[in-house]
TrEMBL record:
The keyword Hydrolase applies. GO terms for cellular component: extracellular space. PROSITE patterns: GH18_2 (PS51910). The lineage of its organism: Eukaryota, Metazoa, Chordata, Craniata, Vertebrata. It comes from Panurus biarmicus. This is DIAC acetylchitobiase.
């Protein structure tokens, strides 16, 4: 099926699978890779999240799911609309703090998206 990527089963604390089957990719890498990927930027309406697909040099198919300012802002707005007390990010140090102009713009947009 298009856009279906199965993960190997890596048991974790009694669950049949876990995110241990994948790995974390820095946001800077994602931003550089998405435009040259097989699929380009895709959007999942159920998860309200972007993703893309690529093949590595060995021909292995991969999907990369991530949050961007749009998906973060939707989640932050939902938190606010439900009267919840806050929102958190998995790993803010995966943003690009290299000081390059594009990186600064992307990083600032991500942090601003947390405050709807």
């Amino acid at each position: 099926q298009d856009h279906v990527c199965s993960l190997p089963k890596v048991p974790f604390r009694g669950a049949p699978c876990s995110d241990a089957a994948g790995s974390q990719v820095p946001y800077a890498t994602i931003m550089k890779q998405v435009n040259s990927s097989l699929s380009g930027l895709l959007w999942d309406e159920v998860q309200k999240a972007p993703f893309y697909e690529y093949k590595d040099p060995a021909g292995q198919f991969h999907q990369v799911w991530f949050d961007d300012p749009h998906s973060i802002s939707l989640k932050a707005a939902y938190v606010k609309s439900q009267g919840l007390r806050g929102i958190g990010m998995w790993n803010g140090n995966s943003l690009d703090y290299s000081g390059q102009a594009v990186a600064e713009q992307q990083t600032q947009a991500m942090w601003q998206a947390l405050t709807p």
